[in-house]
Specification:
Largest sheet: 5 strands, mixed
Shape: globular
Helix content: 40-55%
Strand order of the largest sheet: 2-1-3-13-6
Number of helices: 19
Radius of gyration: 25 Å
Oligomer: single chain
Structural class: alpha/beta
Strand content: 5-15%
């Protein structure tokens, strides 16, 4: 009897061992917000047979903390990321610059890149940014961040008698490639007690990313004529009292988004509408704050701003799993792909935030009507804007150089320095802090 019991116990233990679920693989994800980790988790939740779980490391870009930590992780053999995220401000470092060799080409992961890019109709500038050495695609985003002019309907109506995007486009010179009409509009607005924009930074993003050349050409510091002209633009705005002299991402700038704000508009992509203007408008439905009092029209110049890009570690042992995530987030144009849900606000159920995505195929079958924009379909403006965005002038040093540049532009606009002195001090800052030839 004792032998039978013992045998039964042994059999039960053996059966339990054999039937125990195999331990899941762990996908290591590094990001600077929880946005991409949440997407990965959504994939896991909707694909229960995927066979892996996620470990996420999120380090904010505040005070420059993310990049050094990511660089160290990529160089380690233990706990290195399988999948990592780079922001538009520093993506070039990871796709084409100093850290490019950590990235796996999408083709090496088994992704049919050429076919999927064509079928999804991915915005060209994002492909340019994510291509290493002119041949290997190593990074793609899920958003399209082509920019438009986002304006207050009530201020446009009070100034020109109409809030129609076609009228406002004409008034500011949308699509003209110059700022001639924009300056006349600024004068019109001032006469009515309003400002054309909140601060010079609003115009900077449009100028910066519509320039013909980047900050570095043939290894040397380069000041594109359009970027140099921004010095005069900034001074014009200040001298003529055409803006509120705010600095982007500071309290006074956010205040101009509320109902009592006096700035006509801001230059930016769809994410500026959803994640900056809407949360700072003073309300959450039409009739509250400035919610519903906004619209968009074509910018005088085509540009893009921001975006997040997905890269895979070339040493990942989970190439198949990483490839599936990348495909689902950046290339899948089906109704069950991330981009369709992201564009239509259904990622976490109906009624979520709609955004402009990288796939033109997805955008063509999506509805971009927003109550925040008075019912306007934002895709009608943002989708064409993506075609004018140029990703070939971006450098890995843009975030740092832009800060040096804008500091000196403010000094000039405020009358603290001559233009020549401001440019000389800018060049000195670059020479002292970056490994770039300055002449």
């Amino acid at each position: 009897m004792k032998k039978l019991i013992a045998a039964s116990v042994f059999a039960a233990v053996l059966l339990g061992t054999l039937s125990a679920a195999p331990k899941k693989k762990v996908l290591n994800v590094w990001a600077f917000t929880d946005e991409v980790p949440n997407m990965v988790q959504k994939y896991i939740d909707t694909h229960p047979d995927c066979g892996f779980e996620m470990k996420s490391t999120i380090i904010a870009t505040t005070d420059g903390a993310y990049q050094p930590a990511l660089d160290q992780a990529l160089g380690s053999k233990k706990d290195a990321p399988d999948l990592y995220v780079a922001e538009g401000a520093f993506i070039l470092k990871y796709s084409q610059g100093d850290a490019k060799n950590f990235a796996a080409s999408y083709k090496s992961l088994g992704i049919d890149v050429d076919k999927m890019l064509k079928e999804s109709n991915i915005a060209q500038y994002t492909i340019d940014i994510g291509t290493r050495d002119g041949k290997d695609l190593v990074a793609l985003g899920y958003q399209a961040t082509g920019g438009a002019f986002i304006y207050r309907r009530s201020i446009a109506k009070a100034t020109w008698g109409s809030d129609d995007p076609k009228v406002v486009k004409e008034k500011i010179g949308g699509g003209s490639g110059n700022l001639n009409a924009f300056w006349k509009a600024a004068a019109d607005l001032k006469a009515k007690g309003y400002k054309i924009c909140s601060g010079d930074g609003d115009l900077w993003h449009a100028v910066e990313n519509s320039s013909d050349t980047g900050w570095i050409v043939n290894g040397k510091l380069n000041i594109d004529p359009k970027r140099e002209a921004f010095m005069d633009y900034s001074k014009m705005l200040k001298d003529n009292d055409w803006h509120n002299d705010t600095r982007d991402w500071q309290d006074a700038w956010f205040a101009d988004m509320k109902a009592e704000g006096t700035a006509l508009g801001f230059f930016g992509p769809a994410w500026l509408v959803n994640y900056t203007l809407a949360p700072n408008c003073g309300g959450s439905k039409v009739g509250e704050g400035s919610y519903g009092d906004w619209a968009i029209c074509e910018s005088p110049m085509g540009f893009f701003w921001g975006g997040s890009y997905l890269l895979a570690n070339k040493n990942t042992k989970m190439k198949k799993e990483v490839a599936k995530i990348i495909e689902w987030v950046t290339l899948d144009y089906s109704d069950t792909g991330l981009q369709y849900m992201w564009a239509n606000g259904t990622l976490n159920g109906e009624g979520g935030t709609k955004d402009c995505v990288a796939s033109g195929t997805v955008m063509a079958k999506s509805n971009g009507e927003l109550a925040f924009l008075g019912g306007q379909n934002m895709f009608d403006v943002f989708v064409p804007a993506n075609a004018f965005a140029n990703g070939k002038t971006v450098t890995q040093y843009d975030e740092t150089i832009n800060q040096y540049w804008r500091d000196q532009v403010r000094e000039y606009a405020s009358g603290n320095k001559t233009k020549a002195q401001a440019i000389a001090d800018f060049k000195q800052n670059v020479a002292d802090n970056l490994d770039i030839i300055v002449e």
